[in-house]
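ok, trying the design again with the full structure, not the truncated one.
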């Protein structure tokens, strides 16, 4: 099988990369204090730089290590240019509004960062010259293994007081210890003012960020007394693992002595510099599209083709169904673009294909859900190439007619999906591709069945060919508001994606496929999550074979 097919799971469920940022030797723009740096991340898209995220502001620090993690979708097949801009700022709102705030910037591609995992580059001023000895370091880590999050709540008791005329202002930093012994900042809490028994706000963090999904990885909690000068006073530290922290998942508090190594070495009766308490720990399971696919969920792909008279006589070169040996028509282009991706997620590679709106043999009665291979007991075709062959053989045997009724074919697939609901297992999800050239005649019935189908494991993709008015199709696509049945019942979720083919006439086939399939992973996850259905355990046999 080709490399492109092997990489399809990545195309539909992008790899996510976490980027961590630190800087050294930043320029000092402040007269009376050190700079308050913040980093803005921009990505180059459609001819311009677009801001996608920014770090927190670190007060009075020329060598900041930012706790904010940038999450970026990584696509091997795309050139993803990134721009990191560093500013000295007062707050986290009006960053980059004044030229004198600018501390430097650097450009690189995400591919460069990923391939090296850690990149250190000099920061450049707007005139292209080096910003002194300033550098920025970007570390990349692929998000893999588990998508679980953990919710944590910490407090501390009887911390050492570091202030002479008031109490300490404690905050805590959480680090994970890498295999090479280096420490990586995971989280920095807020500062609790004037309090030796602080309770920090609960927060959520991915297990990947916290411990790289290794429950026995060493973690370090460091507590400081905040100082506005940036010279924070060390109070103490704790070393532990997520394994030890999990005791709090059962509702028990977990406590550790907060140790100052210098005090421990010098003082014979030294016990601690306070106690760190984990008051809450809850792991939240987050499933992804690939979790379901790799757990054995199959994508059952069905095609429905419009054979109404408005397409034009197939033998006429102006017909949307005209078969030109030198170039496929719009029906074939849409079918190939979408079908060739979907077929990688169906193990038997057999696809039911139906037509609607034609008079069919032997009696030439109008049908709105006939198998295009004319085998009512087995409407499946071998691979997408088999669907294309059946479509070409079907054209000379039928008479294009009308009207454009799509509710019968949607209802047919909904009945199959209804049977799947009874299994209460994530084994089969249905995708119906409807390729049509005109206005839907049975709009009321179609709205009704789509609303019913929103409760089922199925999605509907509609590709409009030709230059007709597709207003009704946009109504079915819930992007402009929740779809309502004629009785006013709202759809439980958006399951329809409509795209006019004319918008992609001059684009690569991959652009159409990317657009119409963009919402499918989310729709799959939303359906099973709404039913409380988890993926089956990982099944190697469900993967696409090499």
């Amino acid at each position: 099988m080709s490399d492109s097919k092997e990489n399809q799971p990545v195309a539909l469920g992008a790899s996510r990369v976490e980027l961590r940022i630190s800087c050294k030797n930043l320029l000092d723009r402040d007269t009376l204090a050190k700079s308050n740096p913040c980093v803005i991340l921009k990505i180059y898209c459609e001819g311009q730089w677009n801001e996608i995220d920014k770090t927190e502001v670190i007060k009075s620090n020329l060598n900041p290590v930012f706790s904010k993690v940038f999450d970026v979708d990584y696509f091997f097949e795309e050139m993803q240019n990134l721009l990191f801009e560093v500013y000295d700022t007062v707050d986290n709102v009006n960053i980059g509004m004044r030229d004198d705030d600018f501390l430097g910037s650097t450009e690189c591609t995400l591919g460069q960062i990923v391939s090296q995992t850690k990149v250190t580059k000099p920061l450049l001023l707007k005139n292209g010259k080096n910003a002194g000895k300033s550098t920025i370091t970007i570390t990349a880590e692929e998000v893999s293994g588990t998508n679980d999050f953990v919710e944590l709540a910490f407090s501390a008791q009887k911390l050492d007081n570091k202030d002479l005329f008031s109490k300490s202002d404690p905050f805590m930093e959480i680090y994970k210890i890498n295999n090479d012994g280096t420490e990586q900042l995971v989280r920095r809490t807020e500062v609790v003012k004037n309090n030796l028994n602080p309770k920090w706000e609960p927060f959520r963090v991915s297990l990947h960020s916290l411990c790289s999904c290794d429950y026995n990885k060493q973690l370090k909690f460091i507590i400081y007394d905040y100082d506005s000068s940036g010279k924070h006073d060390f109070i103490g530290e704790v070393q532990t693992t997520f394994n030890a922290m999990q005791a709090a998942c059962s509702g028990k508090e977990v406590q550790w002595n907060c140790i100052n190594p210098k005090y421990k070495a010098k003082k014979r009766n030294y016990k601690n510099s306070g106690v760190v308490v984990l008051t809450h720990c809850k792991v939240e399971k987050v499933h992804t599209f690939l979790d379901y696919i790799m757990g054995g969920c199959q994508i059952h792909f069905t095609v429905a083709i419009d054979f109404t008279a408005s397409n034009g006589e197939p033998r006429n070169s102006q017909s949307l169904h005209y078969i030109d040996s030198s170039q496929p028509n719009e029906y074939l282009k849409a079918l190939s673009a979408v079908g060739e991706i979907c077929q990688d997620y169906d193990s038997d590679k057999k696809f039911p294909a139906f037509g609607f709106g034609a008079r069919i043999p032997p009696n030439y009665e109008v049908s709105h859900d006939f198998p295009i291979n004319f085998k009512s007991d087995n409407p499946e075709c071998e691979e997408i190439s088999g669907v294309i062959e059946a479509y070409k053989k079907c054209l000379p045997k039928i008479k294009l007619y009308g009207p454009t009724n799509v509710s019968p074919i949607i209802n047919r697939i909904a009945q199959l999906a209804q049977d799947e609901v009874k299994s209460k297992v994530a084994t089969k999800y249905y995708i119906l591709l409807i390729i049509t050239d005109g206005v839907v005649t049975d709009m009321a019935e179609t709205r009704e069945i789509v609303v019913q189908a929103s409760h089922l494991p199925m999605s509907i993709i509609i590709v409009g060919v030709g230059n007709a008015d597709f207003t009704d199709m946009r109504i079915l696509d819930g992007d402009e508001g929740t779809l309502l049945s004629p009785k006013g019942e709202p759809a439980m979720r958006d399951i329809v994606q409509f795209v006019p083919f004319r918008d992609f006439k001059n684009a690569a086939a991959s652009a159409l496929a990317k657009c119409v399939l963009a919402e499918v992973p989310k729709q799959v996850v939303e359906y099973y999550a709404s039913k409380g259905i988890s993926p089956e355990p990982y099944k190697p046999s469900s993967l696409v074979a090499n």
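Keeping the full-length input from now on. The CA atoms of residues 348 and 429 lie 14 Å apart.
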